[in-house]
UniProtKB/TrEMBL annotation:
Participates actively in the response to hyperosmotic and heat shock by preventing the aggregation of stress-denatured proteins, in association with DnaK and GrpE. It is the nucleotide exchange factor for DnaK and may function as a thermosensor. Unfolded proteins bind initially to DnaJ; upon interaction with the DnaJ-bound protein, DnaK hydrolyzes its bound ATP, resulting in the formation of a stable complex. GrpE releases ADP from DnaK; ATP binding to DnaK triggers the release of the substrate protein, thus completing the reaction cycle. Homodimer. This is Protein GrpE. It comes from the Bacteria. The gene is grpE. Pfam families: GrpE. It comes from Flavobacterium frigidarium.
């Protein structure tokens, strides 16, 4: 009977071992599944981080490009401002220069050569000072074709010949530009 009990105990133990082995196998399979899920989650986390990094790089590049455009634009505006900083003062001086030109025409008719020479020197000094500040005369003369981008037509008169139709007949007031920008258009009469 002892033998029977041992055999029974051994059979029970074998059954228990099989049951334990089954539980171990189940646990191993479950553990492997959990590890695969963790690996999948890790990959998705890595993918998510990679995606986030790519988005942040894109944002950074766009922001950097926008900042570079801003710097370029403000630099250009600053250069333009420096070029035209004297514009108001020069515009205020133009009527004085016009009066000076008319005075020179009348003074040159006088017989006093010393006074004419003195006023002419002052006139040239004023013009050269304004030229050093960037003021230039818009080159328009009688006989040139009229261009509305560079001159202002005050009136039209009948042309003396067919060649003068649509052309400048007379310049009433000089035009001036500061750098590339016309600050006062020449006033002209054109033939029709």
């Amino acid at each position: 009977m002892k033998f029977k009990n041992i055999f029974k105990n051994t059979s029970n133990m074998a059954a228990e071992n099989t049951e334990i082995d089954q539980k171990i196998d189940d646990a191993t399979i479950e553990n492997n599944a959990n590890e695969e899920q963790v690996v999948t989650e890790e990959l998705s986390v890595e993918e998510q981080l990679t995606r986030d990094l790519t988005q942040e790089k894109d944002k950074f590049l766009r922001l950097f490009a926008e900042f570079e455009n801003y710097k370029r634009r403000t630099t250009k505006e600053r250069i333009e401002l420096f070029k035209t900083a004297n514009q108001e003062v020069l515009l205020a001086m133009l009527p004085v220069l016009d009066d000076f030109d008319r005075a020179m025409t009348e003074i040159s008719k006088s017989e006093d050569e010393v006074m004419t020479k003195g006023v002419e020197l002052i006139h040239e000094k004023l013009k050269s000072t304004l030229v050093t500040k960037g003021l230039e005369v818009v080159d328009v003369k009688a006989g040139d074709a009229f261009d509305a981008d560079f001159a202002e037509a005050i009136t039209q008169i009948p042309a003396s010949s067919d060649k003068m139709k649509g052309k400048i007949v007379d310049v009433l007031e000089k035009g001036y530009k500061l750098g590339d920008k016309i600050i006062r258009f020449p006033k002209v009469v054109i033939g029709q």
